[in-house]
């Protein structure tokens, strides 16, 4: 579509990279504003977001390279060319969560509370990033007479990236509207909704192949994360359930 915004002898500005940057900046701005309202130190939360972003990008790239090594084996240097695209959200999410837990433990901050703080804006950042995928031509849909022509692929394809972005915006809006949850439950809902959204989106994607029983590897990961989301939600509810006042 339009993978390059500007190019000269000295540098090239890639659309995908710009949208990843926009996603991070918008999410960081909104999270730190909300953090201040909830009594968190915005500077600490900002550092947390930067730390998890770096960890997330690294793990997202590693995940993509491992799953698509045939693309990199002819030219291993392509591994470091992130501006060409090639990040797996699930890999980034898992890596960011693991690193985030370590950061929050070191700072003695509530993991469930910070996870809930970030949950809606993770979905928003995903939505913005998918627009970058559309312009980059990656994460494309199946061939369709009702689709759009993608020059990089030389054919008409279903614009799955746009549907992906819109459905993630719905997840963002739903999480922002939910109130009165116990600490940790909102993040559990995010895991479940985002996993369900990705599971369904895979049926529209044209760049993924079945991995087992007709489902792609990302659909299997989605099922695992959806289950994890239900467990997180249930455990959060059980942990904060008020003890009964009735006599035994």
UniProtKB/TrEMBL annotation:
Binding of a 1,2-diacyl-sn-glycero-3-phospho-(1'-sn-glycerol), residues: 130
A cellular-component GO term for this protein: plasma membrane
Entry EC no(s): 2.5.1.145
Pathway in which this enzyme or protein is active: Protein modification; lipoprotein biosynthesis (diacylglyceryl transfer)
Its membrane topology: Multi-pass membrane protein
Location(s) in or outside the cell: Cell membrane
One GO BP annotation of this record: lipoprotein biosynthetic process
GO molecular function: phosphatidylglycerol-prolipoprotein diacylglyceryl transferase activity
Keyword tags: Cell membrane, Lipoprotein, Membrane, Transferase, Transmembrane, Transmembrane helix
Enzyme class: transferase
Pfam families xrefs: LGT
Record protein name field: Phosphatidylglycerol--prolipoprotein diacylglyceryl transferase
